[in-house]
Amino acid sequence: MRFSQIVNSPSRTFALVLTVFCFGILIGNFLPLLPILPLLPFLLVFLFFLPPRPSGPSRTFLIFILLASFFFGIFRYQQSEVPSYLITVSDRTTVMVRVQGKVLNEVERKMDGQQIILSNVFVADESVFGKLLVRAPLFPRVSYGDMIIFSCRLEKPEPFNGFSYDKLLESRGILAVCPFPQFVSVYKTAPTSLISVILSFKQFAIQRLQFLFGEPHGSFVSGLIFGGSASLSDDLREDFSRTGLSHILAASGVNVSLFSVVLLHWLLASPLGRRKGLAVSGVLLVFYVIAAGATPAVVRAGIMAGLLILQLAIRRQARMLNVLLLTLAVMLLVNPRLLLDDVGFQLSFVATSALLFIYPSVYKRFSFIPSTLGIRAVVSSSLIAIIFTLPILIWNFGQISLVAPIVNVITLPFVTFLMAVALISLAASILFLPLGQIVAVFGIAISFIILRIVTIFGSLSFASIPIAYSKIVAVAFVIILFLILSHYNAARHTS
Fold first, then answer.
1. Backbone angles phi and psi of 122, in degrees to 5
2. Mean pLDDT of 438-464
3. Which end of the chain, C or N, has fewer beta carbons within 10 A?
């Protein structure tokens, strides 16, 4: 496509500006602060008063817009770096100190302790910049909004097994960890905020599911719907990891998007019809985000799943490309660290993009699979998600699950049905508890099948193997995918 065609197309121009901004975010990670950045506001003012031609923006004007977008992307990323003059919580490590902070998010409770994120941190009565991750014992119990005081030897996060754990925490504003707090004092606050109400409902829902399904099915189902595997045994979590199914135990964009695809197929095939089906899907998605705690990861997952609903409403991939780019640009504007440092965001974005643009073609080619109850939708969408997220997993974790494709194809249809049965059981139990228990019987049977498959395949010695030169392999895999897609597009346009 020629440059003049891009200039004369508002849609393509908008997409190009967003792409250049995101590219600037990417480049900002590798460049020092540029001397030209202080001049950016003057450049934007100049562009604002530069009149375009009557027939559309001129070539020169568009070049200035693209340059401004690129440098603003670099500026926004470097603006997210912690200034050197600030005293951060990571500057107060290696010695035992008195720490005070406010619980910022929902507390994640595991079998052996609590994981707490603190804001408004004071170290030795000195206010410091950054959040603190605390791994505390189960008692005393800590909740969202509480103020806690303790003594601890703070540590800087470190990468492990090739995974940049420190970068992941930094992308979330967490600059230090406290592995062993001592003399913990908790000062309770009244739960009056909307977030407190949402989290209280979530805890009620989790406890009700655990009562309806029993263990280990209750912990598995609650993790499936609301995210988290803390209540599962270490052996079972390891089996999920070795079989490549860990993503279903997190409120990730991958999991929510896969469920949204199948849910849409169910609703669109129902008597509701297209318009009402899309509306119901959107309402259920909003309810899920709220019920799951509305944490940043859940909100991102909801946004990605919402794009799939929007695609069916728009029915044009060209416009959906702009919507996807706009979503990416806004999320990176809020937190530029997501692009390179947050693996969950990377998996969500790549999986959703693949489902948006590749899933329709794959779904048609899988015509030999029955579409009854959304089976074809589950198989085709899960394979797409597995293939396109595999390079990210290899790059970050340096290993690959050989049984993941088989296990995902076998279990994901059951996972979708289990999520639906669990939500119906939860709603029914609120109306009439015995009715919820009756519905849960079917869910327990499905959960038993899934867990049995995971333990059988996870016990295989070759289930997961390390990859030598993992980053090179990941890049090679991306190149192969790019060549395959290019060949497919060329063949489609010539036919």
1. -120, 130
2. 90
3. C
- Asked if the structure places residue 197 within a domain, the reply is no
Q: What pLDDT was estimated at residue 5?
A: 41
CB atoms within 10 A of CB 330: 11
**Is the peptide bond between 140 and the residue preceding it cis, with omega within 30 degrees of 0?**
yes
Q: Rounded to whole angstroms, how far apart are CA atoms 134 and 175? A: 11
Rg of the chain, C-alpha, whole Å = 24
Q: Kind and range of the H or E element at 311?
A: helix 296-314
Chosen domain end from 29, 48, 79: 79
Tell me the pTM: 0.77
Q: SS3 for 219?
A: helix
Question: In sequence order, which residues have a C-beta less than 8 Å from that of residue 185 and are 6 or more positions away?
Answer: 148, 149, 150
Residue 157 has φ and ψ, to the nearest 5°, of: -60, 145
CA 68 to chain centre: 29
DSSP single-letter state for residue 34: P
Domain termination site, one of 60, 79, 98: 79
- CA dist list (Å): 124 to 96, 153, 173, 180, 204: 10, 12, 20, 17, 37
Residue labelled with tokens 């934007």: 44
Token pair belonging to 311: 């695609």
Q: Are the beta carbons of 18 and 330 closer than 8 angstroms? A: no
- What's the one-letter identity of residue 94? T
Q: What is the domain extent for residue 94?
A: 89-187
CA distances from 233 to 215, 217, 404, 455 (A): 11, 12, 20, 12
Higher pLDDT, residue 381 or 474: 474
> Is there a single domain that holds both residue 176 and residue 209?
no
CB atoms within 10 A of CB 318: 11
Instruction: State the average pLDDT for the chain.
Output: 80
Q: What is the torsion angle, in degrees rounded to the nearest 10, for the CA atoms of residue 384, residue 386, residue 388 and residue 393?
A: 170
